[in-house]
Amino acid sequence: MAKDLEAIAKSKKIKYFLVSWVDLFGSLRAKLVPARAIKGMQKEGAGFAGFAAWLDMTPAHPDLFGVPDPDSLIQLPWKPEIGWVAADLWMDGKEVEASPRVALKRQLAKAMKKGYRMKTGVECEFHLINADGSDIADGSDTQSKPCYDQLALMRQYPVIGKICDAMIEMGWNPYQNDHEDANGQFEMNWDFDDALKTADRHVFFKYMTKTIAEENGLRATFMPKPFTHLTGNGCHAHVSLWDRTGKKNLFATGRKDPRGLGLSPLAYQALGGIMHSAEDLTAIFNPTVNSFKRISAPRTVSGATWSPNAVTYGGNNRTHMVRVPDDGRFELRLMDGAANPYLLQAGVLAAVLDGIENKRDPGDPIHLNMYEEGHKVKTAKKLPQNMLDALRQLDKNKVIREGLGDELVDAFVKLKLQEWDSYSKHLSSWERANTLDC
Ligand SMILES: [Mg+2]
What is the pLDDT of residue 301? Predict the structure, then answer.
């Protein structure tokens, strides 16, 4: 029996619920529903017009309903009278195939049938910038190697401390916060968990971070590359598959790993799936025009971009697309801050399941510094260089279509091509500077 949100509202003194969902572009949408009306909403869902969000729908489509998932409920630590719930989208009595959370749940159910439960952790990097978005918020944060800078970290303690306090209260088990590699950039880490829980938390983390920054007169951005000369905002994902009970890590090796990284044969097949589909997943993991200024980017003032440029994996080596930092898991370093939290997880799982089903071999790890010696690796596939190439790759891919569904991939590609079209018609100052005298 599903949890009764009306009863929970009474016992926890919740006055309003944010019935919340993200569209294909990852934009967060919600209705603020008074607790007196939540009983009906829990059954029927809150009504929306799908065309008004980034979904491939027209104004003629019937009502879209966001049905709250009571298991996702979070009472806002900084405003406890409000409860946040992730919603699944329904239309005409059916779940909407081309909606991100539904697509992820479908993938997870498919994995569960095969006896796999995916657990993930995400590292959502962000910049704290001033309210008008023109520069980083802290004018004193100027070191060329600012990573782990204690003074700059503590100048933002009012924001970072409040977010971490909230994570503790919500039971996410946060364990570290730091100043990252770019001026004005931070990262906060909490425990990995089941992929759906991590995706819901990822959505909520972005909302919470932006809100608490705004309450402090600042702004938080997860934009992949907000400043050309500084390291961009990645969203690395740590991935492992567990048995149905979630107690046994199937990526951990019970015996010696001949490749020396501490991964099981199953984990290598999963990794093989990721390597096989990486170029096709780029449109999902790096979904904006701006994303391509982060991957394959020139060196930043700190000395490295920390983002991949080719489809390679290594051991505990951050210059590769996939790092194996420890026994029993791998870290995907391709995704950025614009990735849709649900499609990120669904994309990973689609490639992982394909790798296992087809026993894909990732080849041997490469033990080179890809930033300095990448040219020596002649066989590595290169990542797409722009959004148009990435979308074309995704469009023709079978594995991701199989996993996420044709309806979702078609809708995503169609809407993103419209975005590309809008961008490519924009006349930039670079073009004028380089073409006026042609
Ligand atoms: Mg980081």
Answer: 82
**What Å distances lie between residue 269 and 13, 89, 318, CA to CA?**
49, 33, 21
- How many Å lie between the centroid of ligand 1 and the Cα of residue 129? 18
pLDDT tens readout for residues 148-163? 999 999 999 999 999 9
CATH topology of domain 10-94: Ubiquitin-like (UB roll) (3.10.20)
Predicted pLDDT at 305: 78
Give me ligand 1 centre to Cα 131, in Å: 24
User: Quick one: CATH architecture of 106-433?
Assistant: 2-Layer Sandwich (3.30)
Q: What is the pLDDT of residue 272?
A: 97
Whole-structure pTM value? 0.97
Q: How far is the CA of 44 from the centre of ligand 1 (A)?
A: 41
Q: How far is CA 336 from CA 125, 284, 317, 340, 437, in A?
A: 8, 10, 18, 9, 37
Q: Ligand 1 mean position to 33 CA, how many Å?
A: 36
> Above 60 in pLDDT, residue 77?
yes
Whole-angstrom Cα distance, residue 221 to residue 215? 14
Q: Cα(406) to centroid of ligand 1, in Å?
A: 33
78-110 pLDDT per residue, tens: 999 999 999 999 999 999 999 999 999 999 999
The string of DSSP letters for 329-351 reads EEEE---BTTS-HHHHHHHHHHH
Place of tokens 């891919």: 397
- Is the pLDDT at 37 greater than 80? The verdict is yes
Give the Å distance between the CA of 104 and the centre of ligand 1: 25
What is the arithmetic mean of pLDDT over 390-416? 97
> How far is the centre of ligand 1, averaged over its atoms, from the C-alpha of 8 (Å)?
37
User: Is pLDDT at 1 greater than 60 in this prediction?
Assistant: no
Domain ranges of the chain: 10-94, 106-433
Nearby residues of 287 by Cβ (< 8 Å), 6 or more positions away: 25, 26, 338, 339, 340, 343, 387, 416
Angle at 7 between CA 4 and CA 13, to 5 degrees: 130
Centre of ligand 1 to C-alpha 125, Å, is: 6
Sign of CA dihedral 21, 103, 196, 279: negative
